[in-house]
Design goal:
The protein is an alpha+beta fold. It is built from eight helices and twelve strands. The mean pLDDT is 95.
């Protein structure tokens, strides 16, 4: 039997200013890559943001997409992981997992499989018919999305590889699926991306009354089956580094756009 990994579990969020959450995750990833921090996982409640991927930034309608997000009350940031535009808000759980690895490219699929399996177990414990796989027409499509009933996406995940570490990050939609549909319709239209708004789901849509705290607890329980979790906080050094990275994470709205 392989030895259980110990993971530092951070439950702190830094939702404001808009780019700080992403900057903190990037700073932790940098420290893990440099060997200054052990394997670390953040679970937190984010602010209302649309996170744009590298391909989104190249789209002719990118500025219009940022403006559409602002008009719906969402700030815009650059994604730390790959993928297309994804939505975070106060009824979602953001997760950011920094995993040390001397050759991180060799374990990409295994890390995706691991996260998807954890989320499926967590969601099923809440009563959701959770399955791994892309729903045709889903936003930010991916083979390791987790859906409900094969019909609606409830978790999305992306990955980024750095020199000696990997970042696995994404979002669990606990509630507020309508907010995601409402903002992504104009955002994806501006980016020229086809998708089906009916594929957006949430845990609450499947199990009415489920709370954010219950969903977070289910995810932590599923993690605890596999790993030794050690509660941790974001230290001053990480916060200082994040402060220098924050502006790179933020996307300024076009002049005249407003929430």
């Amino acid at each position: 039997m392989s030895e259980r990994r110990t993971i530092e579990l951070v439950r702190e969020g830094f939702p404001r200013p808009a780019g700080m959450d992403t900057a903190v995750s990037r700073a932790i990833l940098s420290r893990v890559s440099d060997g200054q921090l052990p394997e670390s996982l953040r679970l937190h409640r984010p602010a209302s943001i649309v996170a744009f991927g590298p391909k989104d930034r190249l789209a002719p309608g990118f500025a219009d997409a940022v403006g559409a997000a602002a008009a719906h009350g969402f700030s815009s940031v650059h994604r730390l992981a790959g993928g297309r535009a994804a939505v975070f808000h106060e009824e979602t759980i953001a997760f950011s997992w920094a995993i040390p690895s001397e050759n991180a490219r060799t374990g990409i699929t295994e890390r995706f499989d691991e996260v998807a399996a954890i989320m499926v177990e967590a969601f099923r414990s809440l009563g959701v018919d959770a399955r791994v796989g892309e729903v045709p027409g889903e936003y930010c499509p991916g083979a390791h999305s987790v859906n409900a009933r094969g019909a609606r996406k409830v978790m999305g995940v992306g990955q980024r590889i750095v020199r000696r570490a990997a970042h696995v990050g994404g979002v669990v939609v606990v509630g507020g699926s309508k907010r995601i549909r409402d903002v992504l319709v104009p955002v994806y239209a501006a980016l020229g991306l086809a998708w089906d708004p009916d594929t957006v789901g949430s845990l609450e849509d499947e199990v009415p009354g489920v709370t954010w705290d219950e969903a977070e607890g289910a995810v932590i329980d599923a993690l605890s089956v596999r790993f030794d979790l050690r509660p941790a906080t974001v230290d001053a050094g990480v916060l200082a580094l994040a402060a220098t990275l924050r502006h790179d994470a933020e996307v300024a709205p076009p002049v005249g756009a407003g929430a």
